Amino acid sequence: MPADSSPGLAGETPARSASRRQRGPATRQPRASVTSAVEVRRSTRRNRTVSAYREGDRTIVLIPARMSEAEEQRWVGVMLDKLAAQESRRVIGDSALADRAERLSGQYLGGRARPASVRWVTNQNTRWGSCTPAEGSIRLSHRLQGMPEYVLDYVLLHELAHLLVPGHGPRFWRLLEAYPRTERARGYLEGVVAADRLPHLPAAREE
């Protein structure tokens, strides 16, 4: 499911979401912090719970006003993971992944990148994707499974571009200019990496 079409709040049931809408908007502090495509809104009416939802090109994370900056960053990572899991409940198989790569190559690279194989792997925990130009093979980390589709498409395009240009010089990045969500996808992945480096917090509790 595309990232922009998720209507509910992560960590809440539809009934609780409806109840929240009936109560009206929560009281918020004047400042809302924004990092890349993530906006954090603090509420004095929220004591223990954290929730998140998509709003256009942004992810809105609602947290208690008393939270520290460090806690805020930890919870942003937790809620991004929750939303990503909700948005992509179906794992794309290797065959569908190869079809997706062929479509993206045709749409953004003029069909010039033609991988011999595209598959998921479970041994890439420090890289989102890799390719071997000599073999024409592309491998994507299983950690991408469950992330928004535009993020998966960006990583696929990134590796497809490497079949044409090996390094990360200006010529390589020009190949990705046609994809409109490059910066958004990079920001999302950078946020996931930053969250992974923070100490783990318990899962959010519902009201």
From TrEMBL:
Keyword match Transmembrane: no
Keywords: Hydrolase
Top class in the EC scheme: hydrolase
InterPro entries assigned to the protein according to its UniProt record, in alphabetical order: UTP_pyrophosphatase-like, YgjP-like_metallopeptidase
Region of interest called Disordered, as start-end residue ranges on this chain: 1-45
UniProt-listed Gene3D superfamilies: Metalloproteases ('zincins'), catalytic domain
Domain (YgjP-like metallopeptidase) ranges: 121-189
EC number assigned by the record: 3.4.24.-
Molecular function terms, GO-annotated: hydrolase activity
Protein name as catalogued: M48 family metallopeptidase
